[in-house]
Amino acid sequence: MDIHPWVWAVTITTLLAVIAVDFVIIARRPHEPSMREAAAWIGVYVSLAVVFGVGLGFLSTPAQSLDFFTGWIVEYSMSVDNLFVFILILGSFAVPPKHRQRVLLVGIALALLFRGLFIALGAAVVNAFAGVFFLFGAFLLFTAWKLIADSGDDDEEYKENAAVRLVRRLLPTTDKYHEAKLTVRLDGRRVVTPMLLVMIAVGLTDILFALDSIPAIFGITQEPYLVFTANAFALMGLRQLYFLIGGLLTKLVHLNKGLAVILGFIGLKLVLHALHETTDWHVPEIGTLTSLLVIIATLAITTVTSLVSSRRTAAVKAAEAAGVAGVAAEPSGGAEDAAGAQPDDDDELRTRVHR
Predict the structure, then answer these.
(1) Number of other residues whose CB lies within 10 A of the CB of residue 280
(2) Whole-number average pLDDT of the chain
(3) 231 lies in some domain
(4) In a domain, 69, yes or no
(5) C-alpha distances in Å from residue 230, one per residue of 20, 67, 97, 248
(6) pTM of structure
(7) Residue 12 belongs to domain spanning
């Protein structure tokens, strides 16, 4: 796919314009968007991605369009996992609800900038040495295994990264927010507000997530333009996705397992591709359409099983609460009732309550 420099220039300029308009809107009226507003904006970003992907099919080839949509879905699904960490970060820094949009937008803009650098570096390495796909594949398989192994951990505490701790050590900081200001003057000296710290935390955290997502999308396509645009459209809709499904994320209890399956599948695909490129073996390769179907099926199954599991858990907790409340409200009987209570009745009652 031969991308002329002017196409890159138009694409990057358009993305910057969208981010600038977004920032102006947020700066003029800082607020926490309603679910309806968030859904409307996500509809806009998804529509733009669909129009872009369809346009690729007409201006380039249907295969390039399919590569874009597959990469975009992979990036979007992995971005949902990022929202768990964003919730912890914004909660840890106690960001006022009306300023959360600004924090997420700046963090996403920083992530897009650094992801562009990672993509350029990754493309150069891929073009120079096809064996790098062995490394990418092994890394994704290891990440998939880690997601499965760590799925039972209940650590929900955000720990500041090294960059945030360094800023705290080098610069005077205040724990109080001053609207959306990054720095303020207190007692005659300039200090950093938590707003700057949380922006750094969000931006750097998303960069760390790129270490998984960039190799994953290179397993779909090695065209830098498609890799970059798929990342850009996924990140652009991430901010509003936070406000739309933030409360539903706790119900996606199997999301890590689904992402593990996707990363493991793409890791296997990368290893097969590396064997095909570097050896004379007749190794079968996995096509993009097959990858897209596997990814969509995995996400659908993960979502359904997560919602069913969450509903069952909620029903069990409700039954336990009702049982405990019933026992507490039951009037105590006389000595005759107490003496007449059979051990098996007590056992049955305890079993019902604990169930």
Answers:
(1) 7
(2) 79
(3) yes
(4) yes
(5) 19, 9, 29, 25
(6) 0.75
(7) 5-250
Counted domains in the chain: 1
Residue 303 lies in a domain: no
Place of tokens 């119900």: 251
Tell me which residue has tokens 């051990």: 343
Does residue 325 fall inside a structural domain?
Answer: no
Tell me the CB-side half-sphere exposure of residue 47, using CA atoms within 13 A: 6
By mean pLDDT, which of 44-48, 313-317, 336-340 is the weakest? 336-340
User: Closest Cα partner for 285 from 219, 335, 353, 333?
Assistant: 219
Q: Which residue do the tokens 């793409």 mark?
A: 266
Tens-digit pLDDT profile for residues 11-29: 889 888 888 888 888 778 8
C-alpha Rg value of the chain to the nearest Å? 25
Tokens of 295: 């990814």
For 51, 86, 209, 264, 301, the CA distances from 148, given in Å and listed in that order, are 36, 21, 17, 11, 16
User: How far apart, in whole angstroms, are the C-alpha atoms of residue 272 and residue 16?
Assistant: 37
Reduce the DSSP state of residue 173 to 3 states and report it: strand
